[in-house]
Design a protein that fits this description.
heterotrimer; A alpha/beta (237); B mainly alpha (290); C mainly alpha (317); B: 290 residues; mainly alpha; two-stranded antiparallel ribbon; 2 strands; C: 317 residues; ABC transporter involved in vitamin B12 uptake, BtuC; two-stranded antiparallel sheet; globular
């Protein structure tokens, strides 16, 4: 479904992403880990279109998406959440989803919206103003909800669990697993917590200094000496 | 024919220093506060009108008016600073509207007090011609060009070397970090307004002595200051000077080679060209895209 | 929309005002002028609120609309109302040259548009062959007779003016509450957040620019056939920028009716009171008003007044 070849992203003199390649099938859940600054969010930005790569190719469902503007990629089925939630704060929770659905799919299906809200445990807060009255985990759920409303085939989740309490994490993780099963969406998940990644994902990619240093099952990857060094090494930095 | 062009270039060059001084004020304020003072040109004009009043009522030579002008205009600039600081939310937008309003006030007050007539200095010493080879200029043009350059050089050096000067540049590039280093951003911001008043009042008198003044000139000068700032790319005084000279040249050549009535067009077109083609100005600088 | 307000308003505008002042040419001209300003204020507020861009050069669209319509009617003899429509189209075409400025940050866009208005003013003066130069155009054809009613009268012009204003207000309202309007407002908070869910933000912003330009052009066109005279310094005068801006800020640029109420209020007060107090330079009061608004009540007079009223009520207990 998603085919990334030799992707390179440079910001002036800094190379954020170097020769990154990945082949992702439909329904896969891939974890993306690496120390801070390794290039994970940059990768998401490149895929969703916030950032223009300096080299390489990305194709989604056999279509070259690098030439397409951000909104077109969203309509093609690439959804994305932001690390710092960016709700449309003048709207209610439900309106946030309605707008996303309207522009991401071209039509409005209120039943589906209610379904998504229920799924994310946001039904109770459907009429609440998005900016003012949501807890962090609810804001995160809203981020996922907005992306879901666009009917994506691929969901890029950027540290959706960061900063949540253990119980909230567990709930959201459960929701994500259910989502995957129910809607058959592929996930690319950035997380820092190794346990979370290991339990959610069957496949993990490790980035360090913009380069892919490992790609395999969680067991393989987290025992890989290079990977271990990158984590320990970075904690000394 | 080419002599005419050379003369044109020479005249445009001489205008450059004044434009640079006017642009500097706008650039400094934008640098520290990230706002555009749409009343800037009016402050310059105010200085010119003060010179006119002193000359016509008390017979003062405009040169002696300079200190008075600086005092008054800087006081006004500080007033504008306090008003702008009073904006509660959405400062970028609201400051535009506020200073727009202040500009309207000053323009109309000028209209009320000094009427719409075109004015200029009648000190003949200024108007006498100086001939260099085949190039002609008014004494005032040469004088204020030299003095303007000197002032620019002094301020440039000061910005580079002095504590306050560095503070101005620090606040421009990173406000919060500068607080950590003991710099008081508010004071620095006010300082940038004072500098704007200083350079602006000098330029105002220069324009009074070399050109003509009339109430709507304020708005025109603000636009020119802005053009020059955009041409220069933010954060570069040499760039500012080059940009100003370019503007002066552009206007001058337009007058000579095309028509005098198209003069303002030159600046506008230069402005739009740079805005769209070279968004970072001629010398690079801050990002202009949102 | 609140029917209880709209219906009486329509009655006032279409019935009461004509009955009371239908014969008073001076009052009618004043009203028509204020409605013209109101229309531009509405268009300005639309661009600001929905498009997120503040313009200091709407005079450009006004002037282009004026000249387009006047010239089409004079040189090609087209039906007047068609010409007015083309005036709007002309302004919209011009606005396409402003498109590159949309990606600039606030102040830069505002001033880029200002540059345009100056450029057009100078072009209008210089292209004498087409525009009649500095002398301008006179004897511009008046509004025609339609279905027996003569719109060239002052009252006729009045009806046309208020109809256009009301129509555009309705359009603004429709856009605002549509999904597009919601997306546009969300865009101002975070354009990326909207693009990531499929909003073509560039297209939407451009559309707002076109609509704002179109509306303004229509008013410029209408105006040229109402006063039958045009010259560059008039058509592109900064007043067509300043007055709508003051009106919109004063009345409250966020609301639908704010700019309209503000325009009528400001223009009438300015013309009847300020101008008589201080014949030359009376607009400085407008500047002061602008400043006061920004500092004390950035959302316009309506919230300011309602705040005071609430306060008063509480104090009375």
């Amino acid at each position: 479904m998603l085919h990334i070849e030799h992707l390179m992203v440079k910001f002036g003199g800094l190379t954020a992403l170097q020769d990154f390649s990945l082949k992702m099938g439909i329904h896969e859940i891939i974890g993306l880990v690496g120390p801070n600054g390794a290039g994970k969010t940059t990768l998401f930005n490149a895929i969703s279109g916030l950032v223009k790569p300096s080299g390489g190719r990305v194709s989604f469902n056999s279509t070259d998406i690098l030439k397409k503007p951000m909104y077109a990629r969203a309509r093609m089925g690439i959804g994305r959440t932001f690390q710092v939630p960016q709700p449309m704060s003048e709207l209610t929770v439900k309106e946030n989803l309605l707008v996303s659905q309207r522009f991401g799919t071209g039509k409005v299906d209120e039943k589906k919206i209610n379904e998504i809200l229920a799924f994310l445990n946001l039904s109770r807060k459907a009429g609440y103003n998005a900016a003012m009255e949501l807890s962090l985990s609810e804001l995160r759920a809203l981020e996922v909800g907005k992306a879901l409303a666009t009917n994506p085939r691929l969901l890029l989740l950027d540290e959706v669990l960061a900063g949540l309490e253990a119980s909230e994490k567990r709930i959201l993780m459960g929701t994500l697993t259910d989502l995957h099963e129910k809607y058959g969406i592929g996930f690319l998940i950035i997380e820092h917590d190794i346990e979370t990644i290991s339990s959610l994902c069957k496949r993990v990619c490790v980035l360090n200094f913009g380069e892919l240093i490992a790609d395999g099952t969680p067991q393989e990857v987290f025992r890989n000496p290079t990977v271990v060094k990158s984590y320990i090494g970075s904690s000394h930095a | 024919m080419s002599e005419l062009v050379l003369q044109s270039i020479f005249s445009g060059l001489l205008m450059g220093a004044s434009y640079a001084l006017i642009g500097l004020g706008l650039a400094l304020v934008f640098g520290t506060m990230k706002i555009i003072n749409l009343a800037h040109g009016e402050l310059v004009l105010l200085s010119a009108y003060i010179a006119y009043t002193m000359e016509s009522t008390l017979g003062w030579n405009p040169l002696w008016v300079i200190p008075l002008s600086i005092l008054v205009v800087c006081a006004c600039a500080i007033l504008v600073y306090f008003l702008v600081s009073g904006i509660q939310k959405n400062r970028e937008l609201n400051s535009l509207i506020l200073t727009f309003g202040i500009g309207i006030i000053i323009t109309n007050l000028s209209l009320m007090i000094w009427a719409a007539n075109v004015r200029s200095t009648s000190v003949s010493w200024f108007q006498e011609g100086v001939v260099l080879g085949f190039l002609y200029s008014m004494r005032s043009e040469l004088l204020f060009f030299a003095a303007g350059l000197a002032l620019l050089a002094i301020i440039w050096r000061w910005l580079k070397k002095s504590w306050y000067g560095r503070a101005v540049r620090a606040v421009s590039s990173h406000r919060d970090a500068s607080k950590l280093m003991g710099i008081n951003p508010q004071f620095t911001e006010m300082l940038s307004f004072v500098l704007a008043g200083l350079t602006g009042s000098f330029a105002g008198i220069a324009i009074y002595c070399t050109n003509v003044i009339y109430p709507p000139l304020g708005a025109t000068l603000t636009v020119k200051a802005f053009i020059v700032t955009v041409l220069a790319g933010l954060g570069s005084i040499p760039g500012l000077l080059v940009g100003s000279i370019l503007l002066g040249l552009g206007e001058s050549l337009t007058i000579t080679l095309l028509r005098p009535s198209l003069r303002e067009l030159a600046g506008m077109i230069l402005f739009l060209l740079v805005l769209f083609v070279l968004p970072n100005g001629l010398f690079g600088g801050a990002r202009r895209r949102g | 929309m609140k029917i209880r307000i709209v219906l009486p308003l329509l009655v006032v505008l279409y019935v009461i005002v004509p009955v009371l002042w239908g014969g008073d040419k001076y009052v009618l001209s004043l009203l028509v002028a204020s409605f013209t300003i109101a229309g531009v204020a509405l268009a300005w507020a639309l661009l600001g609120n929905l498009g997120g861009m503040v313009s200091f050069g709407h005079a450009a669209f006004f002037g282009v609309g004026s000249y387009t319509s006047a010239l089409l009617s004079m040189k090609l003899g087209l039906p007047i109302f068609l010409c007015i429509l083309m005036g709007g189209v002309g302004a919209t075409l011009i606005s396409t040259t402003v498109l590159p400025a949309l990606r600039l940050r606030g102040p830069f866009f505002a001033l880029a548009i200002l540059a345009y208005s100056q450029i057009f003013r100078i072009l209008a003066t210089e292209l004498e062959g087409i525009t009649g130069g500095a002398g301008g155009l006179s004897s511009i054809p008046v509004l025609p007779k339609v279905l027996g009613y003569d719109f060239s009268s002052k009252l006729g012009g009045y009806f046309v003016a208020i109809t256009i204003v009301l129509f555009f207000t309705w359009i603004y309202h429709l856009i605002r509450r549509s999904y597009y309007g919601i997306a546009l407002r969300a865009m101002q908070e975070s354009e990326d957040a909207t693009r990531v869910v499929g909003v073509n933000s560039t297209l939407l912003k451009a559309a707002m620019l076109f609509i704002s330009a179109f509306m303004t052009g229509i008013f410029g066109a209408f105006n040229s056939h109402y006063i039958n005279f045009l010259e560059p310094d008039y058509a592109f005068h900064s007043d067509w920028t300043i007055l709508p801006v003051v009106a919109a800020i004063f009345g409250g640029y966020r609301s639908l009716t704010g700019p309209l109420v503000g325009a009528v209020a400001i223009y009438l007060i300015d013309q009847s009171i300020f101008k008589n107090l201080i014949p030359s330079g009376h607009q400085f009061i407008l500047g002061a008003l602008l400043g006061a608004m920004v500092l004390f009540s950035p959302d316009g007079l309506e919230p300011f007044i309602s705040k005071k009223l609430r306060w008063g009520k509480r104090a009375a207990h």
